[in-house]
Amino acid sequence: MADRSNIMKKKSQDAFGHKLMDQFTYGGAVEIVERDDGYVDASGGQLDYLAPYRKWPKFEQQAIRLAKGKTLDIGCGGGRVLLYLQEKGLDAVGVDISPLALEVCRRRGAKDVRLIPIAKLSRKVGVFDTIVMYGNNLGLLGNPRRAKWLLKRFYEMTSPEALIIGETIDPYKTTMKEHLDYHKANRAKGKLGGELRLRIRYKKFIGDWFDYMFVSKKELNDILDGTGWQVRRYFESGGALYIAVLEKNR
Predict the structure, then answer these.
(1) What burial letters (b/e) apply to 25-56, b meaning 16+ CB within 10 Å?
(2) Which pLDDT tens digit goes with each residue over 166-220?
(3) CA 196 to CA 211: how far, in whole Å?
(4) Contacts 24+ apart (CB under 8 A), 221-225
(5) CA 146: distance to chain centroid?
(6) All domains of the chain, ordered by start, with CATH?
(7) Residue 183: which residues within 8 A CB-CB, separation 6 or more?
(8) What is the C-alpha to C-alpha distance for residues 134 and 145, in angstroms, rounded to an integer?
């Protein structure tokens, strides 16, 4: 009974999940992303969480072809990556903290989705050959210290030849004053410019605050130091978005 109560509570706070369910059921839906400095932005067409592979940006299509073996999709959302991996015959597991997102995944045909926060991932979930973090979900690493801890954890729950295929944004490729001011305020606090605190709003639903992190390539390399991971290659979008493919140090 307690578990059911917790799930119902999570659904009541699941702004992202409600948005995703509406998108799946009715079509277009727009969420509001709120930053802790009061900046808000509408996130509608920038990322289609339900898009089939043929509609993905080219750099995402190219990078995902490196996925192999048993694969973990962290922050699986509406299951776009998960379904592609299944279609390719890979043993794919999707995890998310949104109960409604996982429900959308199941309705779309996902075979194995689990309600697990990123910090609770371990070898108990499985030993993986590939970890995918699309939709800018490399940002779920949160901050440099937490990122190092999580990457070491991922090292222990992956095979020797494992890859992490993670998407993020270089936060410094912007001219917007609101973002530049936020970077400056972060640096004054001893943080990276791209460390964010966000929450999602949709209709009457308001999600919990969470930490997110956008990093430049140099910052990413600094974070990787001592974690057992190194950059194998990058896939470029032609803008601020990029994908880093990580491999274990030889």
Answers:
(1) eeeebebbbbbeeeeeeebeeeeebeeeeeeb
(2) 999 999 999 999 999 999 999 999 999 999 999 999 999 999 999 999 999 999 9
(3) 6
(4) 222/144, 223/141, 223/144, 223/147, 223/148, 223/151, 224/151
(5) 15
(6) 48-193+210-248 (3.40.50.150)
(7) 171, 172, 193, 194
(8) 21
DSSP state letters, 206-222: EPPPEEEE---HHHHHH
Q: Are 211 and 195 in contact (CB under 8 A)?
A: yes
d(CA 28, CA 44): 8
Rounded Cα distance between 201 and 111, Å, is 29
Helices in the chain by DSSP H: which ranges? Answer: 2-13, 15-26, 58-64, 80-87, 99-107, 144-156, 177-188, 217-224
Longest dimension (CA), the chain: 51
Residue with tokens 């996902």: 110
Under 8 Å between Cβ of 204 and 136 = no
DSSP 137: G
Average pLDDT, the chain: 94
